[in-house]
Amino acid sequence: MSLGGGVDWLESYHITGGKILEGDHTLNGAKNAVLPILAATIVSGRTSRIENCPNLSDVRTMGAILKEMGCKVLWEGDTISVDSSSVDTFVIPQHLMKEIRSSVFLMGPTLARCGQVNLSNPGGCAIGRRPIDIHLSALKRLGVEIHERDGYLECKTKGLVGNIIPLEFPSVGATENTMMAALMAEGETRILNGAKEPEIIDLQNYLRSCGADISGAGTDEIRIVGKNPLFETTYQVIPDRIEGGTILAAVAATGGQVVLKNAIPDHMEATLKILEEAGCNVIREPNRISLKAPNCLKGVKHVVTQPYPGFPTDMQSQVIALLVRSDGSSRITETIFENRFKYVEELNKMGAKIRLEGRTATVTGVNHLKGTRVSAQDLRGGASLVIAGLVAEGDTVVDQVYHIDRGYERLETVLSKLGAEITRRTSQII
Ligand code: EPZ
Asked: Hey, which CATH number is domain 9-28+239-428, 1.10.3720.10, 3.40.309.10, 3.65.10.10, 1.10.530.10?
């Protein structure tokens, strides 16, 4: 990855395992809430001040896309102000599209604002093909014509019209795109079988703070009455439940204890239940979660990833890293993405005993992991390698840390504060 000057550099984490993590951590704002909300700021044509934004590469890239589309974007501390009065294009910049898949969330708001949107099909990534057919069929039902040529999409409408939109699968992105496009549709839109994640409710609450007539997020039916005028707003993003789950898994893996501040236990219930099944003591309070790990973790019977409120796919790899050193065996089935076990091979290089059969991983607990050099292939898989490094004997080097920077703000600083021996190093690629 080039850090400028034409020289290629590689950033990696260097971890010396064996430390017990203890302390507290205040959660950052949720990546998967702030990204669609930033996309939604295009619709109002006014200024939105979004507070509690995490400083992540994906968020910086989304800000760059909004700027290229004509918005004025100002980042002060954890607040990003977006003035979308001067949006001057309906073309999503291709060179930035390929940086973040979630730029697909710009389809709905750009159609609502401009009646047109052109973008390259985001395509797949390390965890799966990630088609957007559900997005496209929903937008067509709102009166959008879509022409696809060589992976480039040209979408336009003579006027968005409210409709009943049954989603064949509760896709998070498709639900969000449809909510945002429906804002400027004539009449009422009802989204059936939409995703129920807390980030969907957060998007609804941001839109309501701008004056949108939208309700039902988190239930089986989301209703939007289109063409409400939208105004300036200031909105604070919810805390990141996946950052929270990742920190809990890291601390539990080392046999430590932690207080997560600014956490919402309800958002993390499925993860908390698995941590308790593995032997952790968890205390839930209105804005904080306290966890104390046992000396030896127990295996868990069967974890199956599901749409919310089921066990989140974004916690699958971190929980496997947690269970690698446990007493007993565990099974984890990934039902959301078809290729989300890439990190398993790297964990097995460290001495883990994980067997893959289709979409199910069987983990046989071992007593020791051995530090070695491993490589992050995607965001959450990378986080699982860090967790394994924290408990491995000796030193572990995790390469391609840029994957991890997409979803965690300076993870090494957070873990060091809890007592981990972890540093970020930059080396030149010869
Ligand atoms: C969001 O991705 C999240 N990203 C993902 O988090 C998360 O894993 C995912 O939701 C599921 O919870 C953001 O919010 C930025 P989906 P999204 O549409 O919207 C299939 C992370 O680590 N599908 O709910 O892309 C798709 O292939 C990231 O933070 C279709 O088939 O997820 C997948 O198998 C990773 N057709 C499943 O649905 C479609 O049109 C879930 O995808 C859309 C999706």
From this structure: 3.65.10.10
